[in-house]
Amino acid sequence: MPRQRNTVKAARRRHSEEFKTEALLLADKVGVAEAASQLKVQSSQLYSWRSQAETRRSKGAAEQALSAENARLKRQLAEKEQELAIIKKATAYFARDLT
């Protein structure tokens, strides 16, 4: 006869971003294995949190680069619109003189 297994699952713990940040700082100071045992979490969880944090940081840098490029292009567009307005005025002025 097969053995019956205990089907009661432990509830998943949810950790706040603040906890994760503090845990990563602790892991940087004392090491991942020691921090994991102190905080009673798996070391793989700390590694996962670390990779997620680095992904967020790299996305932040990419967004800043895109924002700077967007601002540069807006300035360039404004300059070109101003140049076009000046050319239109000059064309209208010289067109009056020809007639």
What can you tell me about this protein's structure?
This protein is an all-alpha fold and 99 residues long. The protein has one domain (17-98). Helices cover 79% and strands 0% of the residues. It has helices at residues 17-30, 32-39, 43-98. The longest helix is centred in the last third of the chain and has 56 residues, at 43-98.
Helix-strand blueprint:
Elements: H1 17-30, H2 32-39, H3 43-98
Keywords:
rod-shaped; 3 helices; mainly alpha; 99 residues; 0% strand
Radius of gyration: 30 Å
**Total number of helical segments?**
3
The N- to C-terminal Cα distance equals: 108 Å
The total of beta strands comes to 0
Question: What is the structure about, briefly put?
Answer:
The protein has 99 residues and is mainly alpha-helical. It has three helices and no strands. Helix 1 crosses helix 2 and helix 2 crosses helix 3.
